[in-house]
Specification:
With 498 residues, the protein is mainly alpha-helical. It contains 20 helices and two strands. The chain starts with a strand and ends with a helix.
């Protein structure tokens, strides 16, 4: 979003750029498998640490929630204080916390250390992408590096369940965290040797009030959803939703008055950006909820081993990987509408197939349903990024990408929280029956993705975005610094053109 330069102002090419890319790709790989391997280990953790379903939800959501809250802050800190410095700090914190998670003596310690792990994780993916973008000045080289970076993320999602199953079966659940340690140490060595410092020439000011209110709102929402089963009228549940309402109101008021807000809420009057954000929340909520339910269903209801459960999830991961590539090409040629509609319908159909599955349902049927869900989830990611970035002017593309990333992480946290509402008190032998309402929620999410795709990509949405751009350009500018310009009608027209 901003022009960058190394400390001292001298521009320089990185020494051995392949090692710079390797360090950044290692970071996204360990951050990706940290969640996907954990999902397969959840039933074992429930047994070994005598955890409830809500305890398992917090083990997953503690990570997703903190990352969602800190992504935007991490990007601002990196621009202001140095990307290499923040990235290296993130690697150190993430690696140390991974070791701590592997040695955690109780569920409470595990959840607390997952929070620390997420603090480090929030400094990895967005900052790594900024490092690659800044260091590699040749467009072709940069495009190849970003493509590799994205492929490694897909690889971590696809291989995570299988790796997790093998690790849990061979060594125990603790090693799904401990395998991050050698990878993290290698990334630290590569970062120290091959990544030079860079920062934004005119970094945005921090927005501590907005950041705090955003954390409070998302934490209150997640807590209220996870802890509400059977306790809807308890003082803590009522208080959490009251805090959520107050925090949202204050957040909007503070951001509207801020010269450089954490999130400029005026942009959400643009239907394409709002639609992309909601689609990201729904899609990644489905992904997280699907992974949570499937891991428990395969191992508890069907009695599969961790290895078998991990392998059973490969059809979903394979479909995601293949259809992600197909979706990107379709978006480039035809625009985001078709991939979003196909994504929503395939997600709804796959989850509907799983809503009636019992512990005796043929495994081939279950695997076919997983593959269909993978088609839906694979098609959705490229159009989310395309709509988000194209709905804002070019000098705000970084903000748009950050909003989309934050929406994905928030969706992941909420997905686990919501599906857990229906299985929080479920016994293993009743899980295949009790999870049906949760699958139906995911079916509705798929239908909503298709509907939002239609609404956020049509002529009405584009015209509304133009009107919003005109209103913003007519009003007084918030700030004269680069990166805070208003969206012009011509910029919006260009950005929304397929």
């Amino acid at each position: 979003m901003f022009a960058t330069k190394p400390p001292g102002g001298a521009s320089s090419s990185p020494r051995r750029p392949q090692f710079l890319v390797a360090a950044c790709c290692l970071s996204v790989f360990v951050a990706g498998i940290s969640t996907t391997t954990l999902n397969v280990a959840l039933p074992t953790i429930r047994t070994r640490l005598h955890a409830s379903v809500s305890g398992l939800q917090w083990t997953v959501d503690a990570y997703s929630l903190v990352i969602a809250c800190l992504l935007l802050l991490a990007g601002s800190l990196a621009d202001r204080y140095g990307r290499r410095k923040v990235f290296l700090a993130g690697l150190v914190v993430f690696t140390a916390a991974s070791a701590g998670c592997g040695l955690a003596p109780s569920l409470g310690w595990l959840i607390a250390l997952r929070v620390v792990q997420a603090v480090g994780g929030s400094m990895l993916n967005p900052v790594a992408l900024s490092i690659i973008t800044d260091a590699l000045r040749d467009p072709a080289e940069r495009a190849r590096a970003i493509g590799t970076w994205g492929a490694v993320f897909g690889l971590s999602v696809g291989l995570g369940p299988a790796i997790g199953g093998l690790v849990v079966s061979a060594f125990g659940w603790r090693y799904v965290f401990l395998i991050n340690v050698p990878l993290g140490l290698l990334a630290i060595v590569l970062t120290t040797r091959y990544i030079t410092e860079s920062r934004a020439t005119e970094a945005r000011r921090l927005d501590p009030a907005g950041q705090l209110l955003f954390i409070v709102a998302l934490a209150a929402l997640t807590y209220g959803v996870i802890e509400s089963p059977g306790r809807f009228q308890s003082p803590m549940t009522v208080a959490s939703f009251a805090i959520l309402a107050i925090a949202v109101i204050l957040f909007v008021a503070v951001e509207l008055r801020s010269a450089q807000p954490l999130i400029d809420v005026r942009y959400f009057r643009s239907p394409p950006l709002t639609g992309a954000s909601l689609i990201a929340v729904l899609a990644f909520g489905v992904l997280a909820g699907f992974s949570f339910l499937s891991s428990l269903y395969l191992q508890q209801a069907r009695g599969l081993t961790a290895v078998a459960a991990g392998l059973a999830l490969l059809p979903m991961a394979g479909s995601m990987a293949v259809l992600g590539l197909v979706s990107g090409r379709v978006v480039a040629r035809r625009g985001p509408l078709v991939p979003l509609v196909v994504s929503g319908l395939a997600t709804a159909v796959g989850c509907a197939m799983l809503s009636g599955a019992t512990q005796h349902t043929p495994l081939v049927y279950v695997l076919a349903a997983y593959a269909v869900v993978g088609v839906g989830l694979g098609m959705v990611n490229p159009p989310i990024s395309t709509i988000a970035v194209s709905s804002m002017p070019s000098d705000q593309s970084g903000v748009a990408a950050s909003i989309a990333s934050t929406s994905r992480q928030a969706g992941g946290a909420l997905g686990v929280a919501v599906v857990g509402l229906f299985v929080a008190t479920s016994a293993p032998d009743q899980f295949a029956h009790d999870d049906r309402p949760a699958w139906l929620v995911l079916v509705c999410s798929g239908v909503a993705i298709a509907a939002l795709g239609l609404l956020s990509t049509g002529r009405w949405a584009r015209n509304a975005a133009l009107r919003n751009a005109d209103r913003m350009s007519a009003g007084p500018p918030r700030d004269s610094r680069p990166g805070n310009g208003s969206m012009s009608r011509n910029q919006t027209r260009r950005g929304n053109r397929p």
